[in-house]
Amino acid sequence: MELPWSRALQLRYPNRMIQLVQAGEGRAKDLMIWSLGDLAAALRRGAPKDAIVYYFNGAGTSRYEHPPTVEQIVELYPAEYKTVTVAGFSAGCRAVQRQLDRAFRGGRMPDAVLLADGLHTRYLPGNKVDAAALASVIKYAKLAATSPRHRMVLWHSSIVPPGYASTTETAATVRAEVEKALGSPMSAASLPQLDGRPVESAVSAGNFVLIEYAGKTASEHIAQAQLIDEVMRDFVPWFGDDNEIVDGDYVYFPDVIIEPPPSEGTDLAGVTLARARADLAANVIEQGPNRGPRIEQMLRSFGAAPGDAWCAAALGTWLREAVADTGLPAPIEGSAGAKRTMSQFQAAGRWIPTRDLAGTTLTPGMVPVWHRGPPGAWTGHIGLVEVPPADGNIFTTIEGNSGPQTDRVARMTRALDDPNLLGMGVL
Q1: Spatial separation of the C-alpha atoms in residues 57 and 11, rounded to whole Å
Q2: Ranges in the chain annotated CATH 3.40.50.1820
Q3: pLDDT given at position 37
Q4: 239: which DSSP letter?
Q5: Checking DSSP bridges between strand 51-56 and strand 17-22, what pairing results, if any?
Q6: What 3-state DSSP class applies to 54?
Q7: 96 contact partners, CB below 8 Å, separation of at least 6
Q8: Domain limits, CATH 3.90.1720.10, in the chain
């Protein structure tokens, strides 16, 4: 059966595969949705009587930003499912994150979440892990730690990727947030050697289990996926009754070993940029000094009057719309003033001053702020990075209240060595 949404996915991602690996037995059954990595044999061993759906959309994290939701999978393969487990390896962990984003916005909540060596995010200034980008995973981990119904297992290698947060760092961030919510540390867990592999460390709280392995090689990355059937057997009770476990499971991955960071930074930054591009394509332009239907809508959203400067209101509107689109938390409130918005980034610890930009990897969706007017003036200007500098200096932006006549949403060319550039915020 081919449904409209799956046809749309196929057109957008020609390499995508959504395949029913196993239909399961009986009228009511348990459902496993696995993203990335051809593990049909291991999954069958882990859930011999249950329904398994395999989702593959090619190599690279960005291809897993828009996975099928649990509801779409159930519509594609209708059945009475007692439980739903979502799981992923490497870039497939991004699909799990997005499925959780949807669940916390009112979709069907998974009964179990399994994440194998693929939970990455970007760094904030000072090499801090961007915990906001992990919000749905952290929220589910807290749920598993306190709810008898929900379960989560997160396991990872000790590989250190270049330029973005490792699975060790993201796991530590999730753990810290769970411990903060519980008001006590997670407990050391005594585990069997899954697939014969020695565990570096393991902790648990309720039904949340976090396992670390010491290996730092590409083969160790692949080995993390090979643990899936034993994780299902040992930690997800509805899969564990009659597993047949075989050490050293054979597995083939049509994927790169370590995923690059997302090309548009966090999903919130990417969707904010998409909103800006939509207004650029719609040719939003003034119909009088700082006036026009879309422009006045932006201004009203931040308590500003028609006729006021609107570059910051445009940025704030795009951000608010992206928050509504993704369900992710807003890192700042936004405002009608460029420098007030800069102050919000500074207060949130998400601001990179100009002097530090030279040593920073700029990404699409970052928010540059410029000084405008005489020295000491409160006025400023703001935009969104669209294309980072290829030569170390020149970059492209999308900005409101800009262009040759400062009257439209415009694509602009800017320079890092502009003396009026104050720095950039990180969404």
Answers
A1: 12
A2: 4-239
A3: 63
A4: G
A5: antiparallel
A6: strand
A7: 35, 86, 87, 88, 113, 115, 137
A8: 267-425
421 vs 286: CA distance, rounded Å = 25
Coil, strand, or helix at residue 31?
A: strand
Q: What is the pLDDT of residue 247?
A: 34
* SS3 assignment, position 279: helix
- Other beta carbons within 10 angstroms of residue 330's beta carbon come to 17
pLDDT tens track for 236-273? 888 755 433 333 332 322 222 233 333 333 468 888 99
Residue 57's Cα: distance from chain center in Å?
Answer: 16
pLDDT tens digits for range 186-243 = 999 988 777 778 889 999 999 999 999 988 887 788 888 888 888 888 898 887 554 3
Amino acid symbol at 162? P
**What does the pLDDT average to over 141-159?**
94
As beta bridge partners, residue 424 has 352, 368
Closest residue by Cα to residue 425 from 262, 261, 269: 269
In order, the DSSP letters of 101-165 are HHHTTTSPPPSEEEEES---BPEETTTEE-GGGGHHHHHHHHHHHH-SS-EEEEEE-----SSSB
* 280 close to 409: Cβ distance less than 8 angstroms: yes
Q: Looking at the domain that runs over 4-239, which CATH code has it been given?
A: 3.40.50.1820
- Mean pLDDT calculated for residue range 380-401: 91
Cα–Cα distances (Å) from 415 to 241, 339, 362, 370, 392, in that order, read: 62, 19, 12, 11, 9
Neighbouring CB atoms inside 10 A of 6's CB total 17
* CATH number at 267-425: 3.90.1720.10
